[in-house]
Design brief:
Blueprint: H1 3-6, H2 11-36, E1 47-48, E2 55-57, E3 60-61, H3 62-80, H4 88-105, E4 116-117, E5 123-124, H5 136-153, H6 156-174, E6 189-191, H7 192-212, H8 217-234, E7 245-247, H9 256-259, E8 260-261, H10 263-280, H11 283-300, E9 312-313, H12 327-335, E10 339-340, H13 341-358, H14 361-377, E11 391-392, H15 412-424
Antiparallel strand pairs: 1-2, 3-4, 4-5, 6-7, 8-9, 10-11
Helix pairs in contact: 2-15, 3-4, 3-5, 4-5, 5-6, 5-7, 6-7, 7-8, 7-10, 8-10, 10-11, 10-13, 13-14, 13-15
């Protein structure tokens, strides 16, 4: 990819889509979550039905709370510049209240995070007999939320807690002690999802380090580069495919677990990899990542009904291969042809980013096709409710089904729209 191409900016995309991005955030996504906050205790109520019309529970999943802190902190920063509507001080005040709620109730004495809390903060056991912390994902989202809050608010105490959490996470991953409820990794496999979320943690920590002029900035940078190198070395295959699972024993391409793909996870990870590759001026990584974006889109797109599949295969629309009896495989088989909100919002940002980097007309066309499908399919038609009806069948009709957790999270849609806003209307670098 030439340097000239790297400087190309999709001005035409920005002119067309920036107003739409701002409107989606300001008129649909943010108002929904403003109505869902717990103004008394901090945090947000996220256990909504798929349509967003009924609150099913006032329990608080900790990964949702960490995600909410990240979002409300970023919105506070954007509101200061007028990029999004709202009171910056109010956004940051509620982010701070949620940070206090998490620090008081979610942090366990052994350095892990609880997974599920009651409305008032009592720890609950999400799976009988599995204890209060069955998933490292909760720890990761709390670390990211605290780090983003620390960056925006200049709060060094919050950043120190985030750093300690990240250190604990890194050690547990290295020791093979990283449980992943609600999607346990089958024995004998290494998971791209764990590598990806660790890369995400390192990126947010690095940004906070830079903003706070923390002395560990060089260490944080090394963490992001090392995390990206692991993904490129283990999961990004020569043909551009990102393997969702790799057999620790090798040589199992006949197995469904080794063959299946997750287009959404691939595309989400690829914007993270491109972020590191651009910063580090690693042209070889940029080229490999752009190739992998094209691979994920071509394998993942449903040519009959439109949209991206939840799971697919490297050679067929439906995942194939020898099957075992794990819950992971059952989920792949049961949900492969569903159309999920987060897959499409992540695809929007990644395709727009590659269009900017490469100036590739084909990638611009992918962005526009995905935008058209996404905004024709997912947004809640009742503007008084807002948000998206997130879980759809292959033809795009709403499904009454739980994906991962029984929540509607304040994360992927808002995060990706914010990323598009920042891509189409860039300001001076934050750090």
């Amino acid at each position: 990819m030439s340097k000239a191409n790297l400087e190309t900016k999709p001005k035409d995309l920005a002119a067309t889509y920036l107003p739409k991005v701002r409107a989606a955030l300001a008129e649909s996504i943010v108002p929904f979550w403003q109505r869902a906050i717990d103004a008394e205790r901090g945090g947000v109520f996220s256990c909504w039905n798929n349509a967003g019309t009924e609150l099913a529970s006032r329990d608080k999943f900790v990964w949702s709370q960490g995600r909410f802190v990240w979002l409300w902190s970023r919105l506070a920063e954007l509101a200061k510049t007028g990029s999004v509507p709202g009171d910056a001080a109010a956004y940051l005040a509620h982010a701070r209240k949620t940070v206090a709620f998490l620090r008081q109730h979610a942090l366990l004495p052994d350095g892990r995070c609880a997974f599920l809390l009651s409305e008032t903060g009592e720890i609950k056991e999400p799976v009988a007999g599995e204890g209060p912390a069955p998933s490292i994902y909760a720890d990761c989202f709390v670390a990211m939320g605290l780090a983003e809050f620390a960056r925006v608010a200049g709060d060094r105490d919050a950043f120190e807690t985030a750093w300690q959490l990240a250190t604990n996470i890194e050690q547990r991953i290295a020791a093979g002690a990283a449980p992943t409820y609600p999607a346990p990794v089958p024995e004998g496999y290494a998971a791209h999802a764990i590598a990806m979320i660790w890369l995400n943690v390192t990126l947010v920590i690095h940004e906070a380090c830079a903003a706070l002029h923390d002395s560990r900035l060089a260490v944080a940078r090394e963490h992001t580069v090392a995390a990206a190198a692991i993904i490129f070395g283990r999961y990004v295959l020569p043909n551009g495919r990102i393997a969702e699972l790799r057999s620790l024993g090798g040589g199992e391409d006949h197995m469904l677990l080794s063959r299946h793909l997750s287009p959404g996870h691939s595309l989400e990870c690829l914007w993270m990899l491109l972020t590191v590759a651009q910063r580090e001026k690693r042209d070889e990584w940029i080229g490999r990542a752009c190739k992998a974006v094209s691979f994920a889109l071509e394998c993942g797109w449903d040519g009959e009904h439109g949209g991206l599949f939840h799971f697919t295969d490297m050679g067929f629309p439906q995942p194939v291969g020898s099957r075992g009896a794990s819950g992971y495989e059952e989920n792949v088989r049961a949900t492969w042809d569903t159309k999920l909100w987060w897959v499409h919002s992540e695809a929007l940002y990644t395709t727009a980013l590659v269009a900017k980097l490469s100036g590739d007309a084909a990638m611009r066309a992918w962005f526009e096709k995905i935008w058209d499908y996404t905004f024709r399919t997912f947004p809640q038609p009742d503007r008084a409710v807002g948000e998206w009806i997130q879980i759809r069948d292959r033809k795009g009709a709403p499904l009454d089904r739980v994906v991962a957790l029984p929540v509607k999270d304040p994360y992927h849609i808002a995060r990706n729209l914010i990323q598009l806003l920042e891509l189409f209307a860039p300001k001076a670098p934050r750090a």
